Amino acid sequence: MPMGPRKGVFPADSNPSIHVGVGSRIALISETHAWAYLLLLPSFLLVLAVLIYPVGSGILLSFREMRLTRPDLGTAFIGLRHYRELWSDPVFHISLVNTTIWALVGTTAQFVCGLISALALNRGLHRLLPGMRLARVLILLPWVMPSVVAGHVWALMLDSRLGVINDMLVRLGVLDRYMAFFADPQTALPAVLVVSTWGAFPFFTLFYLAALQGIPDDLYEAAGVDGAGLWLQFRHITWPMLVPIVVATIVLRMIGMVNAPDLLLVLTGGGPGHATQVLSLFAFQKAYAEFDFGYAAAVSVVMMLMLMAFTVVYVRISGVTKE
Amino acid sequence: MPPSQRRLDRSLDLCTGLLVLAFVAFCLFPLGWTLLTSLKPEADIVTATLQYIPQHVTLENYVTLWQQSDFPTLVTNSVVVTSITGLICLTIGTLAAYSFSRYRFRGRGKLLIFYLVIRMFPVVLMIIPLFIMMRNLGLLDSRFGLALAYTTFLLPLCIWMLKGFFDAIPLELEEAARIDGCTRLGALVRVVLPLARSGLVTTAVFVAIVAWNEFLFAMMMTTSQGSRTWPVGLQLMVGEFQLPWGPLSAGGILSIIPIIIFFALVQQSLIRGLTAGAVKG
Lengths: 323, 281
Description:
The complex is a heterodimer of chains A (about 325) and B (about 280).
Chain A: H1 21-29, H2 35-61, H3 81-87, H4 90-126, H5 132-144, H6 147-157, H7 164-171, H8 185-213, H9 217-225, H10 230-259, H11 262-267, H12 279-288, H13 293-318
Helix pairs in contact in A: 4-8, 4-10, 5-8, 8-10, 10-13, 12-13
Chain B: H1 3-38, H2 42-45, H3 60-68, H4 71-102, H5 108-117, H6 123-137, H7 143-167, H8 171-179, H9 184-195, H10 197-213, H11 216-221, H12 230-240, H13 245-279
Helix pairs in contact in B: 1-13, 3-13, 4-7, 4-10, 4-12, 7-10, 7-13, 8-9, 10-13, 12-13
């Protein structure tokens, strides 16, 4: 299709010669080969300064002594001492186990809720059921909620004296008395996992709904003509189409779960005891409360290595090849 | 269509509807409950028998929050930090995303993947050196410093999103402009940016929501009223008073109102922008 200049899109007075000053100089540079790189330069420099440099010096820091509260100790190179200390730190071992449970159970619960809600919404939208377009927006709301608000909202609902969830569960006969969910080591982690599922499952819904809507209808029609039932259609059409996005979202979500201690920080602070202590929270507390930066950095490096190992192994096992 | 098929369809429709309803209830109930709590007087919140529907509707929690806490300062700080973050990410992000979208150069693919992979670095690992860096630069406990810290995780995301929006603009329009004697810069400013307006707005809203909500960096890097953002302030309120549920709920509601408004305005485009990049891999 021949494309001429369009009215409104491209004003007629755009001859470069009428540009003056700095503008015209940049316009001249924009004609050189370096232009593509020049455009990238600011972002690259910024990422270098606020991301690569911090990560690099964070890794180096894990081999050094650095406590802001103890300047007398200096910042000497101490080799693997922090890592050896970690190995014999019982809290680190508890955190390691809790991080695994937290990330695996949390991601799984969010994935299941996300997949089911996406399938239901997709069918509802497809069959033009009433209210589905609104529901699609409402279901995403928890995902844009700040973790501080999510934390306090649920803390109030699960409160041992004033909690509406306790009240409803007692009325329904599920509980015989109010529970202090966050004070009991048995229920603290599951309770925070429920909150985290509330806040994060819409992330899966968002991506799976988009992917589901991209599957052509005629695939299902053909399968229907061949007499394939709903389960067979899901097994042989829907699921294979979803697999690449499932792998990508699970990796992203695992990274999010392992890295972000926000909810636990607001809800339990790692307690009771160390029942909800995870690595990210452990590292944050070491840095924020004790200013033991070297030790906190070592914990973070362990986390990063775990995530890298998980990602590589998971992507390989799932058999998704890069396009 | 055979009647048995129609009956199956209809009962499946019912299941679908109930399922979606259950999910919507799960998502909205906590927010609705917070709203109700924020409208109750303290005596009705702390009571032996739970009140589901507030019997005395009052705005006193909002008044208390606004007059007796530093909430107005906190919100101002958050607005400033969010705006600076948005400005940095959008200007720098636009340049980079445009380059990725329009030019094929050596190292392009690797750099794109690099901008994706850096999400894997633990936030805590970056917070510590950033804290030291900002302290040395005198940017600790400053709104600009905090905004700069936010670009660590927002700029790469922003570039990916914007690239998706630029990719959707047909190349022919720019080529036509070039034939008419427009420079590359002229084509970017006069042709591409106006067309990408809704994408730019969407990305800006996304960046703003994340920056507005951010808690961990803010907790670490702000120590005084001068730069503290509202999530930190709300969290610290818990320590100061004996669980002020009323004002706390009011604070929660006030802080999520802007998010809900912005999200409602751009949700369609936001969903497209977020998923387009990811569905392609």
